[in-house]
Specification:
The protein is mainly α and about 150 residues long. Helices cover about 70% and strands about 5% of the residues. A two-stranded antiparallel ribbon has the order 1-2.
Length: about 150
């Protein structure tokens, strides 16, 4: 799709993230469903990326009928899905660290300074551990895992 509006020309094949802000505004204001689909795909790929941020910025001062609410919902749902995926990834890492350590869940929890029930919430993804606690888990898994090999 070639976008030509005001003083902006975006050649076909240009990645959406490389479009100037004015091109995004043109697509939102004057585009068709196929044009908006290009934006929504990019937002789903990178929900906190430059396109999502610029669309958010535009929606903070303009509310185009129909498409504004659509783009807002796309951003919200993409971020919700990304957050769930990230929680699941952290839960898999916690589970892997426990397995790698060779310790029981209760002993691993004690070694990182928490309870087995709290550790269980990290393993299921219901709760995400702090960055500091995740670093501590990695250290314990590395220390205990390597000492078992020697």
């Amino acid at each position: 799709m070639t976008i030509a509006s005001r003083n902006v020309v975006v050649p076909p094949g240009t990645p959406v993230a490389a479009w100037p802000y004015e091109a995004l505004v043109s697509v939102i204001e004057r585009g068709l469903v196929a044009d908006w689909a290009v934006l929504t795909r990019e937002i789903r790929v990178d929900p906190w990326g430059p396109v999502a941020r610029q669309v958010e910025e535009y929606l903070s001062y303009e509310r185009p009928a129909g498409v504004g609410a659509l783009l807002e919902r796309v951003i919200d749902s993409a971020r919700t899905a990304a957050a769930a995926s990230e929680r699941a990834e952290v839960a898999r890492e916690v589970d892997d660290l426990i397995a790698r350590s060779g310790l029981t869940t209760a002993v691993f929890a004690e070694r990182i300074g928490t309870s087995a029930s709290r550790l269980s919430t990290y393993r299921t993804g219901r709760v995400t551990p702090s960055a500091a606690l995740l670093v501590r888990m990695r250290r314990v898994a590395d220390q205990v895992g390597s000492s078992r090999l020697t």
